[in-house]
Automatic annotation (TrEMBL):
Provenance organism: Boldia erythrosiphon
Domain FDX-ACB: 619-714
Stated name of the protein: Phenylalanine--tRNA ligase beta subunit, chloroplastic
Catalysed reactions listed for this entry: tRNA(Phe) + L-phenylalanine + ATP = L-phenylalanyl-tRNA(Phe) + AMP + diphosphate + H(+)
Family per record: Belongs to the phenylalanyl-tRNA synthetase beta subunit family. Type 1 subfamily.
Compartment(s) where it occurs, according to its Swiss-Prot or TrEMBL record: Plastid, Chloroplast
């Protein structure tokens, strides 16, 4: 924004201030002055500040806001409109509290029509101010609108209503003007003669269903003010900023008006700016007709109280480097800063109380919402450079949390297994309906929040394959976003992808492709950190979990379950995904909810299920092998049978190993069942087992297994 030094001098007493000194003050307070230029406008010398402000300081897009900021930094009085003059403006119009329409987009609005106006050249003083702000003067009505926008930061919709309503406009004419979302194919020509084809939902001001103003952006060429204008419609309003932002993005238009609407219009200045605009139009167009202004002013709804704790100011800002240390030695210093900025303070009568209730001024009510915002206001005026900018150094080291210890173990284990860690951006392109859309993305490629880490891993996989790297083992630990019960929640995930020709027993050999069981084995080694039983459940759409399953092959996927919690998913990537990225090899992936994993890990430790690692002497005695075949229903998992065998032999330490080596379905096997063969290895640590001893134990295991699972032993 370009700021005129002469205009500032009309608002605050800076006659003896150095412009460069004021520039430094503004920059330190967070409103950077990028350039200072000297100009001559119609014979009057001026100094122009070229300034930028942060998105949360919408008040600094107006001369009033900047003057108020300089006054606060220098403890000066500032003038907006004299109360006497504001009373004159108010008396010139009859303000009627009336909700003309029930539109959820509205917050506050003022609207009226002024008849019998004349189009003339605006005064020289106004032209100078507009040229200083980088705006070319056109005529008295348009210039008044631009003047009010620059001065108050309040864009107004001013249209020539006489072109669409030739007769004298009245209350009924105003009722025909309303804001409405239009979405059908409409040809709209703006005041810059540029044509826009509206084929998406856009908010516009319409007259009898014809759009005449793209709300907050630009008017139609049909209603621009020119020499033939006799009646004007003026509207000042506050809308949901997302509505204007959406219009601007869909149409690719950025105007001075839309920028201010997107930042947020000041509630405090809306009425004053609107009344001044109407008064100036009457004054500079020789209109003498008294008019009604219709309003749905509900400013009281925006008032709020925020609790401020004095003690937190020092905790957040750190030590005061000034000699008197007054920001902390006297708590009234912080209060006086807030009061000078227009905040209302409700103090506690107790002298021992360190808390007060603070009500922000209406000009800042949209961006002052938390205690930290109040602390920033205090620091901004007191001076950020008056606080120590070094982080305290502590010699003592705090122990790592259980969460961090487990996270480090997982990261180390994955790297030992040959995985490479990558980091992807948490914002992605919205390519499916499950992704969470961002209302105001900076670029279309980052228009949604990720709900899975695997999408990013697949992109990395594709880039590596395209560059000739056919051996992929990568993982990422990061945050994802899930819509649960209409609330967006954040959680940490651990995800990985592996595949390609990664198995070689010799440097001479060509790498062999990994299969499902080998990939699952890598995940089993990772999960052995927990030292507890993991259930590998067949994927079923009825299972309760929050993982994205569209990326996985439905017939070759499994859900990881610990302590009855579904903590993750593992499986082969869906063939459709592989086809999209032009890969003809099997790729496997896993995704684990770290928060659920940590919860299960802590639960097993609490229940003392977590087994301590013990070292044992390796047995040199021979191993005796026995095979066992069972006929079981298909819904009984092999994992369940192996677990039951272990449980049935837990009273002795002779059963060392169970291998599954055969499965058969078909002839001589009842429909819905299958034959499964296991190989059991028996070994003692202190003697050579005899055949009878092993046979007896083997029979006991078979009998107990048949009874516990109701299956047939062959």
């Amino acid at each position: 924004m370009k700021v005129s030094w002469n205009w500032l001098r009309e608002m605050i007493d800076i006659e003896f201030k150095n412009p460069y000194e004021v520039s430094t003050q503004l920059t330190l307070a967070g409103c950077e002055v990028e350039n200072i230029t000297y100009v001559n406008i119609f014979g009057l010398k001026d100094i122009i500040f070229d300034m930028t402000s942060t998105p949360d300081r919408s008040d600094l897009l107006s001369m009033i806001g900047i003057a108020k900021e300089i006054a606060s930094l220098n403890q000066l009085k500032y003038i907006t409109i004299e109360n006497k003059k504001l009373d004159e403006y108010t008396n010139s119009f009859n303000i009627i509290q009336n909700n003309l329409e029930n539109n959820l987009n509205y917050e506050i609005n003022y609207r009226c029509c002024i008849n019998k106006i004349k189009i003339v050249v605006s005064p020289l003083s106004m032209q100078r101010k507009l040229l200083a702000a980088g705006i070319q003067p056109r005529n008295n009505i348009i210039d008044i609108g631009n003047y009010i926008m620059v001065k108050w930061g309040q864009p107004l919709e001013i249209i020539d209503i006489s072109k669409i309503q030739p007769k004298l406009v009245d209350y009924n004419s105003i009722k025909k003007l309303h804001k409405k979302s239009i979405s059908s194919n409409i040809r709209f020509i703006g005041d810059n003669n540029k044509e826009y084809n509206i084929n998406k939902e856009i908010l516009a001001t319409v007259y009898e269903n014809k759009p005449i103003y793209l709300t907050g952006i630009t008017p139609s060429i049909d209603v621009i003010i020119n020499n033939s204008t006799t009646s004007v419609y003026i509207e000042g309003f506050l809308l949901n900023t997302n509505s204007i932002n959406k219009n601007s993005q869909l149409l690719g238009i950025k105007t001075e008006s839309s920028i201010r609407h997107e930042r947020g219009i000041s509630i405090e200045y809306l009425k004053s700016s609107y009344l001044e605009a109407c008064a100036l139009i009457k004054e500079y167009s020789t209109s003498s007709v008294k008019h009604n202004i219709f309003s749905n002013n509900v400013e009281y709804l925006f008032q709020k109280k925020i609790e401020l704790n004095y003690n937190k100011i020092k905790v957040i800002l750190g030590p005061d480097t000034t000699t008197n240390n007054k920001i902390y030695s006297n708590k009234n210093t912080a209060i006086s800063i807030l009061e000078y900025l227009g905040y209302s303070i409700l103090k506690n009568n107790s002298s021992y109380s360190y808390k007060v209730k603070v009500t922000p001024p209406l000009s800042r009510v949209k961006n002052i919402n938390r205690e930290i915002d109040l602390v920033e206001e205090i620091a901004r005026i007191y001076g950020f450079n008056n606080f120590l900018d070094k982080i305290p150094y502590f010699k003592t080291k705090s122990p790592l949390s259980k969460r961090e210890r487990l996270l480090r173990q997982i990261r180390t284990r994955l790297k030992i297994l040959g995985f490479t860690e990558i980091v992807n951006y948490s914002l992605i392109m919205k390519n499916n309906k499950e992704n969470i859309k961002i209302e105001n993305p900076l670029i279309i490629e980052h228009s949604a929040l990720r709900i899975s880490l695997i999408d990013g891993l697949i992109n990395t996989l594709t880039e590596n394959y395209n560059k000739g790297n056919g051996c992929i083992k990568i993982f990422e630990i990061g945050r994802v976003f899930k819509p649960i019960n209409a609330v967006i929640t954040e959680t940490d995930y651990i995800s990985g992808i592996l595949g390609g020709s990664i198995i070689r027993t010799s440097w001479k050999e060509v790498g062999k492709k990994i299969n499902w069981h080998q990939a699952k084995g890598s995940l089993e080694i990772l999960m052995s950190i927990l030292n507890t039983r993991i259930h590998w459940l067949p994927y079923n759409s009825s299972l309760n979990h929050t993982f994205s399953t569209i990326l996985f092959h439905p017939g070759e996927s499994t859900i990881l379950n610990i302590n009855k919690n579904n903590i993750g998913i593992f499986g082969k990537l869906h063939p459709k995904i592989l086809k999209q990225i032009n890969l003809n090899t099997d790729i496997f992936a896993f995704e684990i909810d770290f928060n659920l994993l940590l919860k299960s890990f802590l639960l097993t430790k609490k229940q003392k299920i977590h087994k301590q690692k013990k070292l044992k002497t390796y047995s040199t005695y021979p191993v005796i092998i026995r095979d066992m075949a069972v006929i079981a229903p298909k819904n009984i998992l092999i994992e369940t049978i192996i677990y039951e065998i272990h449980m049935n032999s837990r009273n002795n330490n002779l059963l060392k190993k169970i291998d599954f080596f055969d499965e058969y379905e078909g002839e001589n096997i009842e429909k819905g069942k299958r034959s499964i063969a296991f190989r059991l290895s028996y070994q003692a640590t202190n003697k050579t087992l005899i055949t009878r001893e092993v046979d007896d134990l083997h029979e006991i295991i078979k009998m107990n297994l048949a009874n516990s699972l109701k299956i047939h032993i062959r």
